[in-house]
Every structure is written in C-alpha cells, then in structure tokens.
Amino acid sequence: MLDAGATHDVVVLEKELEEALEKEVVDLAQELVRCRSVYDPERGTDERSAARLVEARMRSFGWSVEVTEVAPGRPNVIATLPVHAAGRTLAFEGHLDVVTSGDEALWSVSPFSGEIVGDRLYGRGAADMKAGVAAMIYGARALELAGPFPGTVKICALVDEEGTMAGAKHAAASGALDGVTGMIVCEPEGDEICPSSKGAIRLRLEVTGRMSHGAMPELGCSPLPVLAACVEHLRRAQARLQETHGTHPRLGDLYLTPTTLAAGSDRQMNVIPASGSLCIDVRTIPGVDHRALVDELASAFSEIARREGAQAALGVIDDRPPVDTPEDDPVVRCLVDAHELETGSRPTIGGVPGTTDGTIFTRDLQLPTVVYGPGDKWIAHQADEFVTVGEIVRYARTYARAARQFLTER
Ligand SMILES: [Zn+2]
Fold first, then answer.
1. pLDDT confidence of 17, banded at 50, 70, 90?
2. HSE-CB for 59 with a 13 A CA cutoff
3. Ligand 1 center to residue 32 CA distance, Å?
4. For residue 96, which of 35, 43, 145 has the smallest C-alpha distance?
5. Distance from the alpha carbon of residue 186 to the mean position of ligand 1, in angstroms
6. 221 lies in the same domain as 345
7. CA of 364 to the centre of ligand 1 (A)
8. Distance from the CA of 378 to the center of ligand 1, in angstroms?
9. What value does the mean pLDDT take over residues 259-286?
10. Is the pTM of this model over 0.90?
11. Structural domain includes residue 9
12. Is residue 6 part of a domain?
C-alpha cells in the first residue's frame, strides 16, 4: 500500500509555473496533432515534422538530444535529462507516427486541424499518441523543475510503431537505452496500468504441389486440400493450446487465426495450381513457448502435406513474445501509487491485447516495460479520435510523480 508519509512522491511546483506547464503540454499535443505524421511516401508525409517539433522543445529545456535516421525521413528522437547523481534510469516512450485519417467525410472536424472543442482535443493521433508524447515530455520537465533527483530520465519519441516497429528495434540495437532500468510506454489504455501484453507471431505457410490440367487431376498434386487440412489443423491446435494454457486473467485466450488463404486464379478455373499459401496471425499469452509452438505447427503441416504428396514450408515473418512485467516491479508500482495520488482511486491493472514498442524493448533488452497513457483504448484509429485536455494534464502530473518515486525510492 501507499506510504502516505513518503516525501518522494511529491512533485511541488509554484502555482504560476504549474499553470504555465499545463498550458504548454496541451499546446504541444495540439501542435503535434497538426503534424501529419502518417508514413505515406506517395503523399510525401512522414514523421519528420513531429520529430522536429519535439526535438526543438526538448533542446530548449537544455536536454541532450540525439536524432537518428532509422530510414530516410524517419528520425528517432531520444533525449536524456542532465544527471546530478548516480541512480536508476527511467525511460518514457511514445511513437510519432499515426495511422491514416481514413475517409475524412466521416470526421466532424478536420483530422489534422488539432481543434479543441469543449474539453476535447480532436484529430488523428490525438490519443494514439500525440497526447502521450506531450505528457511524457512535460512530465519529465515538471520533475526537473521541482528539484534535483538521482539518476536520469530518457524520453524516446520513435518512428514506425504502426508499421514494423523499426524505430523501437533501431533504438534497442543502438545502445541508446543501455542502463535503462524501467520503461513507461505512454500508449492510450483508458486509465489502466498494463504490465502485460499479448505476444504475436506472423506465420506464412507455403505449400508446393504439382500443376496439372483440371481434366487430369490425377497427374498433378493440388495444394488446396493440403491448405484446407492445415486450416482445420489450426482449429484443433488452438483448442488444445487454449486448454493447456488456460485463460490469462487480463489477456484472455491465445488464438491461432488464419488470415489469408491463396492458391490458383479464378481466370484459370481449369488449372490445378502448383502452389498456395496460408498466413496465420498467432496471439499468445505469457507462458507460451513461441519456438515450440512454431516447431509443432511446422511438423504438423509437413506431415499433412506429405500425406498428399506435397511439400510445406512454414516461415516466421515476425515474432513478438508476450510481456509479463511483475506487478511489484518498481516501474509498475510507481505508476500505481502516482495514479492513486492524482485521482484518489486505485487504478485497474489491465493487459494490452496487441503489441506495443514496449514488446520490442522487453524482447531485445529484457527491460521491464509497462503501458499507461492518456486516451481511451477503443478510440485509436477511429474517426473523430480525441483525448480530453484534462487527461493530458493529469498524465503529465502522474508521470512526474511516478518518475520521482522510481528514481528516489530505495
Ligand atoms: Zn499507438
């Protein structure tokens, strides 16, 4: 439980300063929404405008800022606050890219205008996750202005989360986060603190048979019955694995979902095709051994293909393990306590059904990561995406409190 007598959880600022920061954090979130940071080479848009904005803001605070191009036009921005005494290193992470606005006619405001109506900041990326980026920057700024602290804070504003997470992979490999002892990923989770996330594996099965005329199927070897049997196998394997691993209290069940199936052409209905493919979206929960699961599927598919006289090759396109940071890890506890101090109530501990950049940092650097940020989970990627102004300010304050506790507790 929270130690009410602790002083490490207090971030005290002059009233005028606090009000100035509250205005600045909202202004920054609004300016970020106005940066059309959709990665779209055809339209010539990318993360650069948003990266320049956060870089300039953090340099103006006197922080040391590194900008690294992960790919042309796609810069990661990582800042480090000045260090006054040895201690832990806390990282905050957010992504600068946003998904497309979709059909703009479905929006009641222009998606990149950054309009504030009442208490809501509207726009593509308002919740996912320009508000989180602004809040982490001003949370760290408030922490710094409230007085010295041991250790340091890193602020990571990265590219390509909505794509292949190239920004996170690059940052993890670059050494820029060496020494980090905990990471807060500021994605919108509707006030839930999420120390666990599902794992994901993308698989592609290629089945090779032998082409022949539809009038003489006995001369060929169709991949189609093999693919059908593999889809059927997935259903059984899923049921068995769900039985073995049970339902995770916050993440639910694991799934093996066929998402694409392709073979032949409807322009050539009299041809038995030589090959076909099946893509599978695997979602796992903590405790599932990804390698064993993939090996098991590969040998089952090979056996099914062999029986039909065909061959099967299973390829792993992407592999992201589940995240299961313990609830008593300092990076989780500091958020739980800060949330309670800010809101007056204990937060819900939740789980992320998808993956975040945090998954990459846990996978590649074994970092304890936790996801907690302004905005509702369900609003991401929808028309009329919004975040409330009150939340942006509250999260900045919560991040400042959490950081002070994480860095000062013994
Ligand atoms: Zn996001």
1. confident
2. 10
3. 14
4. 35
5. 8
6. no
7. 19
8. 11
9. 96
10. yes
11. no
12. no
